[in-house]
Specification:
elongated; 10-stranded antiparallel beta sheet; alpha+beta; 11-stranded antiparallel beta sheet
C-alpha cells in the first residue's frame, strides 16, 4: 500500500508540472488511505462467482437454469434381450449387463450402448426404460449405481444378485444430494459419495396448498411441491415463543420465521427459488444467500461480490433463543459471524463488526467494504399480490410484479449520501430516506423491517420481478462498512482515482429486526406505519410532544444576506436586510389579522454570523435587521400573541470566524481533500466559481458548537432553537479525526441532548429518525417521494408515522408550482402548512446566495397563507393528537381516517374537503388571486 502512495505522489508531482490543475488539499491522516485507480463510474466487480449487476451485460453471461435430464438411448426390447434380469424393486424391474457382453452380442450398436450402461430399470407399470446406471462405488454392504445425470441412485448387494434400494432425485436445481423413495413417503439427504444417509425425513402424504411436508425427529421440516419435483423449503426447528418460531437450514444458512398467529412462514430465501425460470445460477445464489459480502482490493482496482451460497463455508451453532452462523469466505480470507435471535415479537439479525476476522489486509490487500444480511427476506413471487413500503420522501409503494422491468432498481441511502464526497456535477434532486425501515405487505400478511444499529451506513434496495433476471420481488438493506471516494488527478478528463476508507471498520454493530404484523383485517401500509410508530415510542425514545390539537402555520423568515454594493466605485460585500425584525412583526400581525393562529417561525440569518456564513454560536441579533432592541420587541410581540419563534443556527457549512477556521475545522473527504460545498451552474450543472465554496463543518466541532450556542441562548433568555439542516444532514470526517457516519450520528445526538437538557425546544427542519427523540416539532416534511420510475404510488408514510406524536408541517407551499394542490395534499396527510417569506422585494435577492427565494415575497403571500390556514383549521381542528389509521387514494379523492373515527375526504379536482359528511370548499376560504408573484 505504501508503494501505491509513493506512486500516487509521483503522479501528483508530474501532474502539477504538466497541467495547471488545482489538486485536492493534502490528505490529513494519509496513513489511513488506500488508493486505487478506476476508469469507470462504478468500480468493476470481479467474480466471487459473478456480480449480479455487471453479469447481466457480460458477453459470457451464463444461461438460465434448467433441470438436468436423462437421455435414455436403449429400448425396453434391447434391455430384455441383451441384459440379465435381476429383480423388481419399488415397481421397477432391473437388468444387469452381462460380463461377456462384448463377446456374446454381435450387434455393435448394442455393444456401444452397453459400454455406458451397467444397470437398466424398466417401469413395471409402463414397460418403459426409466433409468440407466453405471457403478459409482462399492463397499462391504452394497454397490452404488448412479445414472449419468445423477438423477437415479440404486444400491445392489455386494454379490450383484439383486437391487436393494431405488431412489430418485427430487430436483437437480435444488439439491443434487436429496432423493425420494418411489412411494414419495421418504426423503433422504446423502453425502457426496452417495454411500451414507446424512438425514432422512418422512411424510404421511397429506397435501396442503399444493405442498407436501416431510419431517424427522430432529425437528427438520422439508416442503416439496405436490408433484415431488421441487423443494419449496428446508429447515430445522430451533426455538419458539408464544408468537413466533425460528428455523434454520444448517447446510445453506437459510432462515425461517414462523408466525403462529397468522400461520405464515417467512423465509430468508424465496420459496422454490431454484426453479426460477428467468434466473441464472448467479442470481439464484444471490437470492439464496443469507449473507452477502463485497470486498475491495485497492491494488487490483476491483471489488468482488461474495455470497454465502456457493462462496462460504457455513457453521451453525445453536444459542439461547437463536443461532449463531459463521460464514467463512476462504477466497477473501474473511470470516463473518452473524447472530439470529428470536425475541417476543421479532427476529433480529446482528453483526458485531469487532468479531469479523480478516486475514492480514496488508498482505492480502482485501478489505471488507459491504455486508448484507437477509437481503431476500420476505421476497414475493411472480404470483403474489402486494407491495413494498419505501420511506423515500413522504413514502412510496413498489407493487409486486408491476411490469417495470426496464426501470432501474431502487437504491436509497438511509439519511442521504455522505456530502463530504462532493460531486463534480449537480446530483439529481431527490427526496431523502429519513426512516431506516421498510414494509412488506403480501396478501393477508405484512412485516415491518427496521434497521436498529448501523443505520447511518445502510442503504435500502428494492427490485421487482423481471429486473436483474429474477422473477422475484426483493427488498432489503445493504451496509457499507468501509466507504470510498473518487476524484480526478488531472482535471475532469483525467483518470478517476478511488480511495477506500482504511483501518478498522468504524461501525460497531449492524442490526436489523423483522416484525411480523398481527392485524384483525387485511393489512396495509397504515399497519406498517403503526408498527414503526410503536417501535419509535416504545423502544427508540420518541415521546409525544403534541401541545395543540389544531394545525400550526409554519413560517420561514430570512433575515439578511451578503450582497455586493458599490462604495465609492469599489464593489464591497455588505450585509443586506431581507426581513428586518420590524418587518417580521408586521408580517405576523398581518397574518394574524387574516385569521392565522398558532404560528411557528424559523428565523434564518438573524445574526451577523448567520448572514456572513460563519459558525453561529453567539445568538447576537444583527444590527442591519434592527439589533437587540428590535429583536427583543419581536420576542415580546410573539409571547403576547401566541407566536413561537425558533431562531436558526445553521452550521453545516461555514466560513472562517467565530473561533472556527476552515484550515482546522473543515471535514476531510476519504480522498484526503477538504470537503468544500459548491454552488452549481444552472445551465450546465457543473461546479460554479461565481460564489466562493463553503467548508463543511467537521462533526468533531458539534459538541463545542452546542455548548457555546446553548450558553448564548440561555444568556438571552431564549428557549427555542432550530439547527437548520443538522437534523437531516449526516456526514463523517475522514482525516485525522477519523469520524465515521456512525460516530457523527452519535455526536449529533449528543449535541441534541446538550441542547434539550438546557430546556431548549428544538424545531427540526426535516428530521432523520435519530433526531426524533429530541425534537419538539418538525417542518419541511415532503408531500411526495423522489418519483423514481419503479415507484407505483406516493403515500404520506412519514406523516402516518408522526401524526399524533409530533406536530409537523409541509415543505414551503409557495415554493410549489401548484400551491392549491399542495394545500389539499397537506390536509389529506394531516400536515400543517408552511410558507417561506421575506419582507423586502424579491429583487433584493438578485446576485445573492439566497436568489432561490424568488417566490417568497411576504406581500404576495400573506393573504393566501392566512386564508389557507383558516381552511386547514376548519377541517383539521382537534385532530392533532390523533393517529392516522386509514389512508386511501382513488383517483383525485383521498380518504383519511383518524384514531377517533373522524373521516376526512379530500377531492383534489373539486377542491372540496368533506369531514364526517360536512363539506368545506376551498373557494369559500381562499380568495381567487389572493396570492400573486409580485
Amino acid at each position: 500500500m505504501k508503494n501505491w502512495k509513493k506512486w500516487a505522489a509521483g503522479i501528483c508531482a508530474l501532474s502539477l508540472c504538466m497541467t495547471a490543475v488545482s489538486l485536492p488539499a493534502a490528505a490529513e491522516g494519509e496513513d489511513d488511505i488506500a488508493l486505487i485507480s478506476d476508469t469507470s463510474e462504478d468500480m468493476p466487480a470481479a467474480d466471487g462467482t459473478a456480480d449480479a449487476d455487471t453479469a447481466d451485460d457480460s458477453a459470457e453471461e451464463e444461461t438460465t437454469r434448467s433441470e438436468s435430464q436423462e437421455e435414455i438411448a436403449i429400448t425396453a426390447e434391447q434391455v430384455t434381450q441383451y441384459m440379465q434380469k435381476k429383480n423388481s424393486c419399488d415397481g421397477i424391474t432391473f437388468y444387469y449387463r452381462p460380463e461377456d457382453y462384448e463377446d456374446t452380442i454381435s450387434d455393435e450398436d448394442v455393444v456401444d450402448l452397453l459400454d455406458d450402461i451397467e444397470l437398466a430399470g424398466i417401469d413395471d407399470a409402463t414397460g418403459e426404460v426409466v433409468c440407466t446406471l453405471e457403478e459409482d462405488s462399492d463397499n462391504s454392504d452394497f454397490v452404488v449405481f448412479l445414472s449419468p445425470e445423477s438423477r437415479w441412485l440404486v444400491y445392489m448387494d455386494p454379490e450383484y444378485s439383486k437391487v436393494t434400494m431405488v431412489r430418485q432425485i427430487v430436483s437437480s436445481l435444488d439439491n443434487e444430494l436429496l432423493f425420494r423413495s418411489r412411494d414419495n413417503r421418504t426423503l433422504e439427504l446423502y453425502n457426496k459419495d452417495y454411500d451414507e444417509v446424512e438425514r432422512s425425513y418422512t411424510t404421511d402424504g397429506t397435501v396442503k396448498d399444493g405442498k407436501v411436508t416431510y419431517t424427522n425427529e430432529d425437528g427438520w421440516q422439508v416442503v416439496l411441491a405436490d408433484t415431488y419435483d421441487a423443494v419449496i423449503s428446508s429447515a430445522r426447528f430451533v426455538t419458539e415463543n408464544d408468537k413466533l418460531a425460528l428455523y434454520v437450514d444448517d447446510d445453506t444458512a437459510v432462515i425461517g420465521l414462523y408466525d403462529k398467529v397468522k400461520d405464515k412462514m417467512w423465509w430468508s430465501t424465496p420459496e422454490n427459488v431454484g426453479h426460477d425460470k428467468t434466473a441464472t445460477n448467479t442470481i439464484v445464489e444471490d437470492l439464496s444467500s443469507s449473507l452477502k459480502m463485497v470486498y475491495g482490493e485497492p491494488d487490483a482496482r476491483s471489488t468482488t461480490n461474495m455470497r454465502s451460497k456457493g462462496d462460504a463455508k457455513i457453521k451453525v451453532k445453536d444459542k439461547s433463543s437463536g443461532v449463531k452462523i459463521t460464514y467463512s469466505f476462504k477466497k477473501a480470507g474473511i470470516t463473518v459471524p452473524v447472530t439470529y435471535t428470536l425475541e417476543d415479537d421479532y427476529l433480529e439479525a446482528k453483526i458485531d463488526t469487532a468479531d469479523i476476522e480478516e486475514d492480514d489486509t496488508s498482505e492480502t490487500g482485501k478489505l471488507t467494504t459491504s455486508l448484507s444480511m437477509l437481503s431476500s427476506f420476505g421476497a414475493a413471487s411472480s404470483t403474489d399480490e402486494g407491495y413494498f413500503v419505501i420511506p423515500d420522501g413522504s413514502g412510496a409503494l413498489i407493487r409486486f410484479n408491476n411490469g417495470k422491468k426496464t426501470a432501474k432498481s431502487y437504491t436509497g441511502y438511509v439519511y442521504g449520501s455522505d456530502v463530504t464526497a462532493v460531486p463534480l456535477t449537480e446530483p439529481a434532486v431527490t427526496e431523502q430516506v429519513s426512516l431506516p425501515m421498510y414494509g412488506i405487505v403480501n396478501g393477508d400478511n405484512a412485516m415491518m423491517v427496521v434497521c436498529t444499529e448501523g443505520d447511518s451506513n445502510a442503504k435500502l434496495t428494492a427490485s421487482v420481478s423481471g429486473q436483474s433476471k429474477s422473477s422475484f420481488n426483493v427488498c432489503g438493506f445493504d451496509f457499507t462498512v468501509r466507504d470510498s471516494d473518487t476524484y480526478y488527478m488531472s482535471g475532469d478528463n483525467g483518470t478517476a482515482l478511488t480511495v477506500f476508507e482504511d483501518g478498522d471498520m468504524k461501525t460497531d454493530t449492524l442490526a436489523v429486526r423483522y416484525y411480523p404484523l398481527e392485524t384483525e383485517d387485511t393489512p396495509d401500509y397504515t399497519d406498517v406505519a403503526a408498527a414503526y410508530r410503536n417501535y419509535l415510542t416504545e423502544e427508540a425514545g420518541v415521546t409525544n410532544t403534541v401541545e395543540n390539537t389544531d394545525p400550526s402555520l409554519y413560517l420561514n423568515f430570512y433575515g439578511g444576506t451578503k450582497k455586493e454594493k458599490s462604495v465609492l466605485g469599489i464593489p464591497v460585500s455588505m450585509k443586506t436586510a431581507l426581513t428586518s425584525f420590524q418587518q417580521a412583526e408586521e408580517i405576523l400581525q398581518n397574518l394574524s389579522d387574516g385569521g392565522a393562529e398558532n404560528m411557528k417561525v424559523q428565523y434564518y440569518n438573524w445574526t451577523n454570523a448567520g448572514i456572513s456564513g460563519k459558525v453561529d454560536i453567539k445568538a447576537k441579533a444583527a444590527g442591519c435587521l434592527g439589533g437587540n432592541g428590535d429583536w427583543n420587541d419581536l420576542q415580546s410581540y410573539a409571547a403576547s400573541n401566541g407566536v413561537t419563534i425558533y431562531p436558526v443556527s445553521e452550521n453545516e457549512t461555514f466560513r472562517s470566524g467565530s473561533g472556527f477556521y476552515t484550515f482546522q475545522d473543515t471535514a476531510v473527504r476519504i480522498s484526503g481533500s477538504y470537503a468544500r460545498i459548491y454552488d452549481y451552474n444552472l445551465a450546465y450543472g457543473t461546479q460554479s466559481t461565481v460564489n466562493k465554496p463553503l467548508s463543511l463543518l467537521s462533526p468533531s466541532a458539534f459538541s463545542e458548537v452546542a455548548e457555546k450556542l446553548t450558553g448564548s441562548l440561555q444568556k438571552k433568555d431564549l428557549n427555542t432553537l432550530s439547527l437548520g439542516s443538522l437534523t437531516t444532514a449526516l456526514y463523517g470526517d475522514y482525516g485525522k479525526q477519523a469520524i465515521s457516519r456512525d460516530a457523527a450520528q452519535q455526536l449529533l445526538e449528543d449535541a441534541y441532548q446538550q441542547i434539550t437538557d438546557a430546556d431548549i425546544s428544538l424545531l427540526a427542519n426535516g428530521a432523520n429518525a435519530y433526531a426524533l427523540p429530541y425534537v419538539q416539532e418538525i417542518t419541511d416534511v415532503p408531500l411526495q417521494s423522489s418519483g423514481f420510475d419503479v415507484f407505483d404510488e406516493d403515500i404520506p408514510f412519514y406523516q402516518m408515522v408522526m401524526h399524533g406524536v409530533k406536530s409537523y408541517g409541509t415543505s414551503a407551499v409557495n415554493a410549489s408550482a401548484t400551491p392549491e394542490e399542495t394545500v389539499l395534499l397537506a390536509i389529506a396527510s394531516g400536515s400543517s402548512l408552511h410558507f417561506d417569506m421575506i419582507g423586502e422585494e424579491t429583487s433584493t435577492l438578485k446576485d445573492t446566495v439566497l436568489d432561490g427565494l424568488y417566490y417568497a415575497s411576504a406581500e404576495s403571500w400573506t393573504d393566501y397563507a392566512a386564508q389557507s390556514y383558516a381552511f386547514s383549521k376548519a377541517v383539521l381542528s382537534g385532530l392533532g393528537d390523533q393517529t392516522i389509521t386509514g389512508y386511501e387514494r382513488k383517483g383525485d379523492v383521498i380518504t383519511t381516517t383518524y384514531e377517533n373515527g373522524t373521516v376526512v375526504e379530500t377531492d383534489l379536482a373539486k377542491q372540496i374537503v368533506t369531514v364526517d359528511g360536512t363539506a368545506y370548499a376551498m373557494a369559500d376560504y381562499v380568495e381567487e388571486g389572493s396570492w400573486n408573484e409580485a
